[in-house]
Each structure stands twice: as structure tokens, then as C-alpha cells.
Amino acid sequence: MDSPYSPLEFSLLNDWQRDFPLVSNPFAEIAASVGADDTLSDKVLSTLNRLVARGAISRIGAVFAPRRVGIGALAAVAAPAEKIEAIAAQINAHATVNHNYQREHLYNLWFVVTAPDKAALDATLTQIEMETGCTVISMPLAEEFHIDLAFDMQSGHSPIQHQRSCAAITRDLDTDERRLAAQLQDGLTLCATPYAELGQRAGMSEAQVLNHLRRWQDEGLIKRFGIVVRHHEMGYRSNAMVVFDIADDNASTIGTALASVPGVTLCYRRERCLPAWPHNIYCMVHGRSRDEVFPIVERLAAIAGIKPTVLFSVRRFKQCGARYF
């Protein structure tokens, strides 16, 4: 299949989803690395701006590690079909909702909510129930086996498999860190010196910004720093959430095995929401078509030893970076 992207566009989208340069002018460093003279950093910058305008890039910035900064949960409602757009809009109006998809299931709206703490998270979910008139089921993250979302544009797979994480240790950010994290949530501004611009908004110097970001990476608070692409715009429009009900004493073993399957972009264990939702293991699979997805689902089912429930996405109502602050 011919790529709709130029060689430079493809390189930027595919190769800079992680390890984005933490230097004063990152675009000059990228220009040099892709074989262009570093004086052509303006071309890199204009190309990225064009990709943002086309919707291929969600943002450039930090993906914070789950449960290390703040708290989040996957939630769902069973919205009446005739009200689904209105209810989706009510959910999207909450700034702390960062993903909202319609999926093929009785529970047809699935969204992710983040917050600085559990009290704030619960308050948001309660408010959504009151506004929409729909009961919200909530499934907090319990254990991650593979959460990265770096995305190989040729295979549709996450390029690097990560070992299952140990128990997460949430660290409270100080006042300066919280201010910086809040300004970073929407990503870097595409300008020649984005960290200096970020510092102006956060009330600190460029050097302070870079020191914070490097330390956050070293601590593991930032899981990756780079370009966040949009799968749908990449041509991967068949998005399936594959869920299993696995016995708790075997969930970690099965989850680790499922995470290693090529084509699985996310794999994690979430708390059940009984009696409405008994599933605890989740795998995300992205394909250009359902015909690409089904063989992966069959392989997952063979490993788990049980048939999963598969929820394909129908519409994307919202996709942006997590907002904790």
C-alpha cells in the first residue's frame, strides 16, 4: 500500500513518537538526524504544523505513566440511541475526559477520566451521571502489562514490548511541577524554542523546564515524550477493545502473555464493576480493517482459553491528552 506521507512526514510520524529531543531547539536536532542540514529545522517545523492541521498528530509532549501522576479510570454508559450525540457532548464537556468512543455494545459510550485524586475522579463521574441520567460503570486501572501507544505505522503494532510494571508509586508534584504539568497537558507549541515558550507559560526558565522533564523521565513519571499520532488518521480505523473475564489468580500470567501478541497496542487489568461488568483483562487492537483484527482476536482467545467480548469502535467523539490538573 502506497504511503500517503512524504519520506520526511513518515519519518517524523514513525520515528519521533518517543525520545523527542529535550534541547533548546529540538527541531534542528531532528533535522540533522533525518539527514537534513540542521539549518532546515524550519522545514521540519512547517511539516509538523501541516501534519497537525491534517489531524495526523494529536500533540507533541509527555505521556505520563498511569497511576504515577494523579488517577484515572475507564468508564462507560448505556446511552439511548436517540440521545447518544447529546450525551457524548455532555461527557466531552468535562475537561478531564480525554477519550470518548462509541462502541458496539449495550454499554455504547466508553470514556477515560483523569483527576488529581480519587475524590475528584468520583465527583466527576457522579456529575456525569446527574447530567446524562445514565448510570456510569467505572473500571480503575489495576495492573498494566503493555501501555505505550507508540505505533509502528507500517505494521500497526507497538514497536517495543515493555515488561509488566511493578506496583505504581504515586508522587505528589510540588507547586512548580504541577504548574508545568498543567501547561504541558495540551502539548508543546510548535515554534523554534518550544521549551522556552512552555517556560513562559509556566513561570520558569527554559533550563528549569528541561531539568524537570529530564528528571520526570528518569523517575518514570513520563512514560514517553514525543509525537502522539491519531490511529484513525493513520488509516487504522478498525479499533477493537477485546475484554476477558479471567480468574484473578491467573490474570497476571494471562495478561503478560496477551501483551506479547503482535498487534496488541495496549494490555492491562482493570477492576471489575459487578454485577454489570465482569471483565478484568483488556487488549486494544488496531487494524486497517476488521479482517486484519479478527486473526489477532483469535490468537488472543487461544492464549486466554476463553472467548472474549469484542467491542469495535463506531465513532470517536473525543481524543486528546490526559488532563490531571
Describe the overall structure:
Helix content is 34%, strand content 25%. Helix 2 (26-33) packs across helix 3, helix 6 crosses helix 7 (194-202) and helix 7 (194-202) crosses helix 8 (206-219). The termini are far apart. Residues 158-167 have low confidence and may be disordered. The chain folds into 2 domains: 1-54, no CATH class; 71-164 and 231-319, Alpha-Beta Plaits. It is globular and about 60 Å long. The protein has an 8-stranded antiparallel beta barrel with strand order 2-4-3-10-7-9-8-5, surrounded by 4 helices. The protein has a two-stranded antiparallel ribbon with strand order 1-6. It is of the alpha+beta class. It has helices at 7-15, 26-33, 41-53, 84-92, 118-132, 175-184, 194-202, 206-219, 251-259, 290-304, and strands at residues 57-64, 71-77, 97-103, 109-115, 137-147, 222-229, 238-244, 264-270, 281-287, 309-319.
Brief overview, please?
Helix content is 34%, strand content 25%. By secondary structure, the protein is α+β, with helices and mostly antiparallel strands. The strands form 2 sheets. Strands 2-4-3-10-7-9-8-5 form an 8-stranded antiparallel beta barrel, surrounded by 4 helices. It has a two-stranded antiparallel sheet with strand order 1-6.
Keywords:
Alpha-Beta Plaits, eight-stranded antiparallel β-barrel, alpha+beta
Topology:
Layout: H1 7-15, H2 26-33, H3 41-53, E1 57-64, E2 71-77, H4 84-92, E3 97-103, E4 109-115, H5 118-132, E5 137-147, H6 175-184, H7 194-202, H8 206-219, E6 222-229, E7 238-244, H9 251-259, E8 264-270, E9 281-287, H10 290-304, E10 309-319
Antiparallel strand pairs: 1-6, 2-4, 2-5, 3-4, 3-10, 5-8, 7-9, 7-10, 8-9
